[in-house]
Design brief:
- The chain is α+β, with helices and mostly antiparallel strands.
- It is about 25% helix and about 30% strand.
- The protein has five helices and ten strands; from the N terminus they run αβαβββαβαβββαββ.
- A hairpin with a 2-residue loop joins strand 2 and strand 3.
- About 40% of the residues are buried.
- The N terminus is likely disordered.
Length: about 170
Amino acid sequence: MAKKPKKQTQSGGTPATVALTAAGTAFTVHAYEHDPASASYGEEAAEALGVSPDRVFKTLVADVDGRLTVAVVPVAGSLDLKALASAVGGKRATMADPAAAERTTGYVRGGISPLGQRKRLPTVLDACARAHSTICVSAGRRGLEVELSPDDLATLTSATFAPIGRA
């Protein structure tokens, strides 16, 4: 007997897309075949979707003075930890332990979305996002991105905009 394919909703059915749908936010889901050998999840997404890497943003979890904090920066650059700490009124930031990031957000590394996290964390979105009408972020699993306006992302995550990325 053949296995039935898993039914997928239009939104992809992840906590991130469920949150977007529940909020009535306009968004587009983009799926691609994830290559486990890929060195960079974000750059892989940009290439697979044919989107400029400055419009695809990665979700990173950092520890700022003992408090987990989400940073959303372009995949083409890197996170400025000092700038992130400053943006949330902290003194020192380091990258969070991957297991703690996964446990707290409910997502696996490479698929962490700023949306629909298990525990809402303070979130900072790189200010350069405002230069685009839409950006792409992880939709909650490897091989799935969601495209939405930066302002909608900031509203849904209670994010602040700050210059936290480095080219």
